[in-house]
Specification:
The chain is α+β, with helices and mostly antiparallel strands and about 290 residues long. The protein has helices spanning about 100-115, 120-135, 140-190, 200-205, 215-220, 250-260; strands spanning about 1-5, 20-30, 35-45, 50-55, 65-70, 75-85, 90-95, 195, 205-210, 225-235, 240-245, 265, 265-270, 270-275, 275-285.
Length: about 290
């Protein structure tokens, strides 16, 4: 029998199908009350969210700002998002209050990806059209080509005008969303709410850890698995409150009693110790 304490993050299912895409992106999140930029790479994209690999860790439920550049789209997309899951360096971000102009930009790019799959058949149709044109008089062929060029130019100018409009609206929406995000963080700090700190960061600050006792009733019943706890760590590093999030009933109390005696190095921001909230998981295994 062993009861090895671990710190984990929650993982949720994706809400919609996505198109693979590999482009750089930046995620801006508030850490210790200050905005921090986490560089990363987008792995897939849909109209409702994005999957990414980040050089840092986020917390499920945390609100962030995302900036990425789509292939064949010259302007960056800047969107607010909610962290849906974090597993190692991979995370899923769900768009929040997605403006109509951003929605249309993403839909346009997804449409282009779908159109590329049909490119083979389009090339075949183009070859047939060229064969027909070769049989027509030279003047008729020239007129058709001129009309095609004019149509393409009109579409290009319309697209440029649309992109410029989207950039202006995106910048305005980005400023307003970021101001709202900072205002919420300032209100939470002023109201005395515990600062949410990732489990990985708090795991490195443990100075005393007591392993939980495997309950005899749970052992006889063959119960094992993870017990996930939500813990509030005081400014002095002691565990103030513990609340069970998930786990077998026969194992929860033993895990909570053990974690209650843990001691942490106080978390500091701006040179002052703070009360923080984090996620702790205890793994019970039958040998």
């Amino acid at each position: 029998m062993s009861a090895a304490p671990l710190l984990v993050l929650e993982v949720e299912r994706r809400a919609s199908s996505r198109q693979p895409v590999h482009v750089p992106l930046d995620v801006v999140a508030l850490q210790s009350g200050l905005p921090a930029t986490l560089p990363g790479r987008c792995t897939d994209l849909s109209e409702t969210g994005v999957g990414a690999i980040l050089a840092g860790e986020l917390v499920p439920g945390q609100q962030v700002a995302v900036e990425l550049r789509l292939p064949s789209v010259a302007l960056p997309v800047q969107i607010r998002a909610l962290v849906r899951y974090q597993e190692r360096l991979r995370c899923g971000l769900q768009f929040v209050a997605l403006p109509a102009e951003h929605h249309e930009m993403i839909r346009y790019w997804l449409y282009r990806i779908a159109a590329q799959h049909a490119q083979g058949s389009e090339k075949s149709n183009a070859l047939e059209a060229d064969a027909v044109s070769a049989a027509a008089p030279a003047a008729t062929v020239t007129e058709r080509r001129v009309r095609r060029i004019r149509v393409r130019l009109r579409r290009f100018y319309a697209l440029v005008a649309l992109m410029v409009t989207l950039v202006v609206l995106a910048w305005w929406q980005w400023q307003r969303s970021w101001n709202e995000l900072e205002a919420k963080a300032s209100f939470a700090a002023g109201a005395g709410s515990p600062l949410r700190v990732s489990s990985t960061i708090m795991e490195k600050r443990v100075v005393y850890k007591e392993s939980p006792v495997y309950p005899e009733a749970a052992r006889l019943a063959g119960k094992q698995g993870l017990v996930v706890l939500d813990a509030v760590i005081g400014a002095d590093g002691t565990v103030r409150r513990v609340r069970a999030v998930s786990g077998a009933d026969l194992l929860v109390q033993s895990a909570a009693d053990a974690v209650q005696s843990w001691k942490f190095e106080p978390y500091q921001a701006g040179g002052k110790p703070l009360e923080v909230e984090t996620t702790i998981a205890v793994d019970f295994r039958l040998n």
